[in-house]
Amino acid sequence: MILLTRKADFSAAHFYWNDAWTEEQNVAAFGKCANRNGHGHNYTLEVTVAGEVDAVTGFVVDLKQLKEVIEREVISVYDHRHFNHEVPEFRSVIPTTENIAIAIWKRLEGKIPGARLYKVRVYEMPDLFAEYRGEA
Amino acid sequence: MKAYFGRRYGFSASHRLHTDELSEAENRATYGKCNHPFGHGHNYVVEITVGGPVDPDTGMVCNLVDLDACVREQVLEPFDHTNLNLLSCFEKFVPTTENLCIEIDRRIRQAFRKAEIFSVRVEETNNNFFEIEHSASGSGSTAGRK
Predict the structure, then answer these.
(1) For residue A95, which of A11, A18, A83, B62 is within the disulfide window of CB 3.0 to 4.6 Å?
(2) Can you name the CATH fold of B2-133?
(3) What is the ipTM of this complex?
């Protein structure tokens, strides 16, 4: 088995808010991320797939196809959007980096020809990332 | 659902790789320029990755404020702008980045209770790093060179 990772970038806005909580509870838990006007980031996405090297092509996966799947399933939906207001899976889920990584996994799982999704890592900033590996 | 959350921190420190177990010549042969008598320094990067279920109320594995406070207290404040050779934890160990990674891993695992520590990675320069990974089957350490 070999792992292959493709990166992609997107820029989006979000805020953290739990409707079941008071404003004080939200501010205590989320700090400045609870500002309901939102704020934004340049996210970097790393999609890692696992597979065997094809004896003929030498590829684990066709990188062009992988890029197209990431573009279609994730980037075209998230880039230059507001997670809380415009992305359906975050109507009732807080768009933390952890939840974004899980949502991207769900968008990509089973859609990559010839390879198995191994992990999704999302950088919100260069010093902060979340990762999901499909674990329950 | 189990997810992982990672955060990167920096501190600067000096060290000299030298052990009294070896002769002067053996030290020079083993450690090369890292054995120069007055030491040298690095901007170290520490990457801590925690793993655990995503809390449905917060959407988080753990609050980064808690992790930041723990790393600041356990690692950044004691190590930043110090000579690692003079710290008590390196009295008996050569402050290689392998041993530094083991010491940081030990401190963070002992002090952080809000999520499980999945891995500790210490980058000495942009081109080399050392990592301890914890999994259900036990711990493993890796070292890499870019």
Answers:
(1) A83
(2) Tetrahydropterin Synthase; Chain A (3.30.479)
(3) 0.84
